[in-house]
């Protein structure tokens, strides 16, 4: 199974989701059966490591994001992944426009499908440290629900 997380810059929210899901799959013994990646709708940060604030907040909870490099999402991703999960509604709208008609990949809003209180992961880029903690809180909880679904699908 192949899962792609998508946000705007691919340096804050989707790299966090990639790192958290990969960690949770390792804990569940499923790391070999699921390929996890992330991408951005924008191209400003292509090739760069995640934002330093994102890396710091994630590392403090045990997720090392330092090996990740940003990439821009394209139509080919819909052939390469089974599940494409958008962090907010703007990302989802971008992906809906990009998605080829015949694509088999499922496309959904990450928190609408797996979250509880909010249906979007708020963009932390222009805010304070609290925003990065909230991103982690929302993503950790939703990834737990995603892992349950993955177990059922494998
Ligand atoms: P992300 O956050 O979409 O969670 O990676 C952002 C990163 C960079 C920018 C915006 C959002 N930016 O405008 O450069």
TrEMBL record:
The record places the active site at 7 (nucleophile), 13 (nucleophile), 123 (proton donor)
Cross-referenced Pfam families, in alphabetical order?
Answer: LMWPc
Gene3D superfamilies (alphabetical): 3.40.50.2300
Q: Which domain of life is it from?
A: Bacteria
Which CDD domains would you find in this protein's record? Answer: LMWPTP
InterPro entries, per this entry?
LMW_PTPase, Ptyr_pPase, Ptyr_pPase_sf, Tyr_phospatase_low_mol_wt
Give the keywords, sorted: Hydrolase, Protein phosphatase
Q: Answer whether the UniProt record assigns the keyword Hydrolase to this protein.
A: yes
- According to its UniProt record, the EC number is 3.1.3.48
Q: Give the protein's recorded name.
A: protein-tyrosine-phosphatase
What species is given as this protein's source? Pseudomonas urmiensis
């Amino acid at each position: 199974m192949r899962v792609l997380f998508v946000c705007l810059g691919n340096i804050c929210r989707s790299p966090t989701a990639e790192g958290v899901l990969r960690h949770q799959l390792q804990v569940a013994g499923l790391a070999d059966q699921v390929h996890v990646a992330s991408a951005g709708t924008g191209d400003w940060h292509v090739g760069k490591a995640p934002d330093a604030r994102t890396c710091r907040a994630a590392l403090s909870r045990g997720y090392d994001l330092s090996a990740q490099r940003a990439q821009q999402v394209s139509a080919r991703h819909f052939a390469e992944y089974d599940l494409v999960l958008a962090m907010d509604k703007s990302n989802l709208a971008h992906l809906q426009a990009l998605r080829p008609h015949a694509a088999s990949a499922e496309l959904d809003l990450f928190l609408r499908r797996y979250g509880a209180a909010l249906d979007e992961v708020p963009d932390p880029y222009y805010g304070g440290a609290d925003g990065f903690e909230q991103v982690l809180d929302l993503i950790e909880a939703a990834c737990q629900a995603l892992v349950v679904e993955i177990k059922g699908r494998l």
